[in-house]
Amino acid sequence: MRVVSGSQKGRSLKPVPGNSTRPTTDKVKEALFNMIGPYFEGGLCLDLFAGSGGLGIEAISRGVDKVIFVDRDRMAIQTIHDNLSSSGFTEQSEVYRNDAERALKAIIKRELVFDYIFLDPPYKKQQLVKLMELMDREALLADDGTIICEHGSDVHLPEQIGSFVQYKHENYGMISISIYKR
C-alpha cells in the first residue's frame, strides 16, 4: 500500500493491523482519483471511514488543503496518525475516533462544508444512502463538491439520493466506485 501520485508519490503506508479493515488497493485508488481529479487546487476533504488514512493522504498528496479523518477503530486511528506523521501531513489533518453518524453530528455543529467526501464503509455494514441523506439535509457538500463511495459490487446505489446525482460508476472486480455530485 502506497501513495500513488502527488507530492508523496511512492511513499509506503502502513495498513491497519488485523482483519478489521480492508484497504483500497493501489489500482482502485489510482482509478478513483483519475475519475475525480487527478489533482486538486485546495479544498476540504472528509474521509469518513478512514481505515489507514490512505484515501485522505492521497488527496493531500494531490493538492487538497486539509482532510478530516474519522474511524471508530482504535488501531485504525493509531495507523492514521503514523501514516500522517511519516508523510508529513499532520498539520493538514484532523483525526477523530468516532462512529460515522456521531462524527457527522459534530461536523454539522462546526458548520463545515466539504469539497470531497470519501465513504468507504465496511462492506457488511453499508449505510451509504442513510449517511448521504443526512449530508444532503445538512448541506455538508459544497455546491460543486463530490462524494466518492467505495462499496461491494453487489451493492447497487440509487441514481439519485436527495439532491446528489450519481454521475460515474465503475466496477473493479468485487469493488465498485460510485461518484455523486449535487
Average pLDDT over all residues: 93
Helix run count: 5
| Proportion in helices | 25-40%
- The succession of helices and strands, N to C, reads HEHEHEHEHEEEE
In spatial order, strands of the major sheet run: 3-2-1-4-5-8-7-6
User: What is the 3D shape?
Assistant: globular
- CATH-derived topology: Rossmann fold
CATH superfamily: Vaccinia Virus protein VP39
Number of domains: 1
Keywords: Methyltransferase, Transferase
Organism: Bacillus mesophilum
Enzyme class: transferase
Biased composition (Polar residues): 1-10
Summarize the model shown.
The protein is α/β, with parallel strands linked by helices.
Commentary on this structure:
With 182 residues, this protein is of the alpha/beta class. It has a single domain, classed as Rossmann fold (3-Layer(aba) Sandwich), CATH 3.40.50. It contains five helices and eight strands, in the order αβαβαβαβαββββ. Strands 3-2-1-4-5-8-7-6 form an eight-stranded mixed sheet. Strand 1, helix 2 and strand 2 form a beta-alpha-beta unit.
Main attributes of the structure:
single chain; about 180 residues; alpha/beta; Rossmann fold; 5 helices; 8 strands; about 30% helix; about 30% strand
Write the layout of secondary structure elements.
Layout: H1 26-36, E1 44-47, H2 54-61, E2 66-71, H3 74-87, E3 93-97, H4 100-110, E4 114-119, H5 128-137, E5 141-152, E6 160-161, E7 164-172, E8 175-181
Parallel strand pairs: 1-2, 1-4, 2-3, 4-5
Antiparallel strand pairs: 5-8, 6-7, 7-8
